[in-house]
Structure formats: C-alpha cells, structure tokens
Model the fold of this input.
Amino acid sequence: MIDRLCVMWLLVLWPTVASCSDKDFIPPPLNPHPKEALHVTVTFDNPEDAKHYRIEMKALYQNQQHECGFIDPLRGGSFIYPKETVNFTNESNNPAELKYSIYIDRYNSQTCNWELASPYFFVRNISTKSWAKNDWGAAPQDLEPGSTYRLTCLFQSNDFPQACYGRRPMPDRKGDRVPIRVHVSLDSSILREQPKSFFRSENFVKPINIEK
Done:
C-alpha cells in the first residue's frame, strides 16, 4: 500500500520536478566592476557601544521571475525563488561609524534577473553572542539617497529575545539600549524598479462572487 502511494505521489510531482530540472538556481557570475551602490553609514550614537557591540551587514539578492522560480509541492506548494545572501565588509577604521557599499549591480544578470531584494544588518553583543535584527531596509524610503533611519536595540538577559525598534514602539523593559543611526549617502545609486513577480498575488485570477 505504501509503495503504491509513493508511486502515485511521484506521478503527481513529476511534471513539476521535470519542469524545474533544466532551471539554473545558481547565482549568476559576479560583476567584476560593479558601479551602482548604496553607500551606507551605520553609527553608534554612543561611541562606547562600539566596544561591546558589532554590526553584521548583509543583503539578500533574489530572483522572482517565472523562468527562474518554481513551486515546491513538498513545502505545501510554496513558491521558491533562487536567492543568495551576501556579507559586506566594513570599509571604515572607526568602530563607532561603519561604512558599507551595497552593490545593486553585483551580479551579471542575463538569463535570470537577479536583483538586490533587501539589505539588513544584525547588532551582536560581543560578550554574550546574542544578536538583534532590525527592520531597516523594509521600506523603499529607507534606501533613498540622503535618507536617515534611527533605531534603538534593546538587549535584555539571554532569557528574552533581543530586538531593535525603529518603526514600532519600544517596550518598557529593563536592558541595555543601543541607539543607532543608518544613513544612505547622497551619492548612492537609486534602486531599480522591481520587475513584476510572476508569483505575486496580483497575477492570479481573483475569485468571482456569485450572488444567489
């Protein structure tokens, strides 16, 4: 009985698996001479905080085009996009004012239109190894040249999750508060218009309400 179910399941999955077999989910070659970049400065408002915390800047590059994505039936039919997370190195010698160049044209996109999906960073406590993620980069205005985003990270005991608060109010709890500013320089490149995703909800036929 189990074997028969397995065979039936494979027959159901085979068209999807076969259609994905010729797709390349490996990131395209790196652009040897990237030019379009977000020049980002992350500043600890209290310079002493730089002795106890460090910034880990990252960015997600992703593709959402039909020819480069697929539906994974093993994950409940969820949409899978090729993606790559990149770590960026601090370009500053000042530990309280870190600088990063987040390249928009990092990849040579020919078949798959790999784009910068979202930059983000973690604030890590050097001694306890605990970390907090923030919501900078979640809105397009965060990445506009000349924009500044302020947030405060709350580090409590290890019994509580650590978090940064920018858009949402900070709870009244005990802990170390680490205020941070994120500034995008005026000489930064403007983000490209995101291509319309094949898998976004607006591309699907909406149900029709039939009045009885």
